[in-house]
Amino acid sequence: MRFRHPDGTTVHLAYCTNVHPAETLDGVLAQLRDHCEPVRRRLGRDRLGIGLWLARDAAHALVSDPSALRVLRTELDRRGLEVVTLNGFPYEGFGAEEVKYRVYKPDWADPERLDHTTALARVLTGLLPDDVTEGSISTLPLAWRTAYDDGSADKARTALLTLAERLDALQELTGRSIRVGLEPEPGCVVETTGDAVAPLAAIAHHRIGICVDTCHLATSFEDPHTALDALTAARVPVVKSQLSAALHAEHPHLPEVREALAAFDEPRFLHQTRTSTAAGLRGTDDLGAALAGDALPDGAPWRAHFHVPLHAAPAAPLTSTLPVLKSALTRLVGGPHPLTRHLEVETYTWQALPPELRPRGRTQLADGIAAELTLARDLLTDLGLKELP
After folding, report:
1. CB 109 within 8 A of CB 152
2. Rounded Cα gap, residues 351 and 364, in angstroms
3. pLDDT tens readout for residues 322-336
4. Which of 113, 184, 259, 274 would bridge 283 by S-S if both were Cys, CB 3.0 to 4.6 A apart?
């Protein structure tokens, strides 16, 4: 979906396909048929943006076989779908029964991460619509914190500088500009937008910036306006933003709140949990650890890294951080000029929701994704953007 900002620029809205597990090119093509096109039809639009997640095997197939890339591009066009952004964070296995810490491998100290991201950039130049010259890729925020030392930091910085050089060469070759954004996430080396400033300043290249995920922003109790103002002051480009909402518990000391939270403690994904105290941010790596005894102070609200559907906040006594998303969006695209032109709804946890909230089959999932995109569209038009055909 495309929108015209009052300053005349085009802002793209997509939804991320990492909600649909697929590791191969055939799996991706099936996603377009079974999920993405039905979502577009529900929205009544001739064109729908999707943020493709391409796992290692799919990316390798596309970058090594020009005919495979042509097949994907043709299929996108045929189904009324367009791609300006990729989710390059998960490498493989995102549809596995247990993902947890594995999603952070390989990290930016491992040459595999550079190779994969380079492949994604090359693929994206071939997928961009004919009238679009800029693409974006979100990526791992360097590494999970416990596996990172000074040697790792040096390797990661060198890899990102190499990536920037490759992206420069790619633009010279194709005429298309691809930028990559580190996506701050709780528990990682770059947990907050503030953590991103120093490493990105050390790279100091306009092709390497930040991806602001509004669930992660909220989980770390960052104020959106303060965070985005600091990025602007530091001249860190916001390459893209993922529109998502975290789980919020206002009174975590109450037994009924703990019981409600426990329903979201599931075995597949990591749900980092945070609370803001007078001594600073406190947290656990997963929701179950927070609920176990007194691992986390419970005198102030808790937030958990669980991407809950934008249009359907959990039932009381829980809620979501949708207000943080709205505040961030106001700053991202509500000003005289947009801070980013690529927005991506990213609720990948539909099948990890408590059983009674999970969609039953493709039809309900498509309905839910369409409802999320409708909410995002309404937020954008309320901010003065005009939806384009």
Report:
1. yes
2. 11
3. 999 999 999 999 999
4. 274
Pairing of strands 10-16, 177-182: unpaired
Peptide bond preceding 106 in cis form (omega within 30 of 0): yes
What is the edge-to-edge ordering of all strands in the sheet holding 318-320? 280-284, 273-277, 302-308, 245-249, 318-320
Within 10 A of 330 (CB to CB), how many other CB atoms are there?
A: 16
Q: Which residues pair with 11 in a beta bridge?
A: 3
The SS3 assignment for 325 reads: helix
What type of residue is 17? T
In sequence order, what are the residues at sequence separation of 6 or more whose Cβ sits closer than 8 angstroms to the Cβ of residue 217? 184, 192, 193, 224, 227, 324, 328
* CA neighbor of 344 nearest in space, from 116, 86, 36: 86
Given a contact cutoff of 8 angstroms between Cβ atoms, the answer to whether 243 and 346 are in contact is yes
Q: What is the pLDDT of residues 132-175, one digit of tens each?
A: 999 999 999 999 999 899 999 999 999 999 999 999 999 999 99
Q: How far is Cα 276 from Cα 303, in angstroms, rounded to an integer?
A: 9
Nearest to 114 by CA among 59, 186, 192: 59
Q: At what angle do helices 224-233 and 322-333 cross, to 10 degrees?
A: 30
Instruction: Tell me 369's DSSP state.
Output: H
Instruction: Read off the pLDDT of each residue in 207-236 and give the average, rounded to a whole number.
Output: 97
The DSSP string of 52-117 is EE--HHHHHHHHH-HHHHHHHHHHHHHTTEEEEEEE-S--S-TTSS--GGGGG-S-TTSHHHHHHH
- 136 membership: H or E segment, kind and range: strand 134-139
Longest dimension (CA), the chain: 60
Looking at residue 22, its amino acid is A
DSSP string, 10-49: EEEEEEEGGGS---SHHHHHHHIIIIIHHHHHHHT-S-EE
Question: What's the rounded Cα separation, in Å, for the pair 133 and 130?
Answer: 8
| Amino acid code (one letter) for 32 | L
